Amino acid sequence: MRAAYPVVEGFADAGDGVRLFYEVYGSGARTVLLLPSWQIVTSRVYKAQIPYLSRYLRVVAFDPRGTGRSARPPAGYDHDTAATDALVVMDAAETDRAALFGVSRAARL
User: Fold this and answer.
1) What is the C-alpha to C-alpha distance for residues 6 and 107, in angstroms, rounded to an integer?
2) Which domain holds residue 70?
3) Average pLDDT, the chain
4) How many structural domains compose the chain?
5) How many separate helices (H) and strands (E) can be counted in the chain?
6) Where does 1-109 have alpha helices with state H?
7) Per the domain annotation, does 1 fall within a domain?
8) CATH number at residue 20
9) 76: Cα within 13 Å, side-chain hemisphere
10) pLDDT tens for residues 14-60?
11) Cα–Cα distances in angstroms (integers) from residue 99 to residues 14, 35, 86, in the given order
12) Buried (b) or exposed (e) across 42-55, using 16+ Cβ within 10 A?
């Protein structure tokens, strides 16, 4: 399957001076939020799944703080902040409700 291109790219303001890069793919009635699997992994870890998922769903993916195109603050890498960051991205992507998908560390959110 060919690569998918985002229909929206943007930055979510986490409120502590941190900007989080996110992308939205597809336009389905239901949304899935792809959670970063670990702090060193960008949203590109899901590049093989996004083309398929975005055929049926609206897909939101983001780079967690400290990676990719998101800011790299000296602190804020705990689980509570990661959960808050996911909610901030949902708000920025105008998403009220989403299924969450994540593996490894993301499963704790």
Assistant:
1) 24
2) 8-108
3) 90
4) 1
5) 2, 5
6) 50-53, 79-92
7) no
8) 3.40.50.1820
9) 21
10) 999 999 999 999 999 999 999 987 666 788 888 889 999 999 999 99
11) 21, 10, 12
12) bbeebeebbbebbe
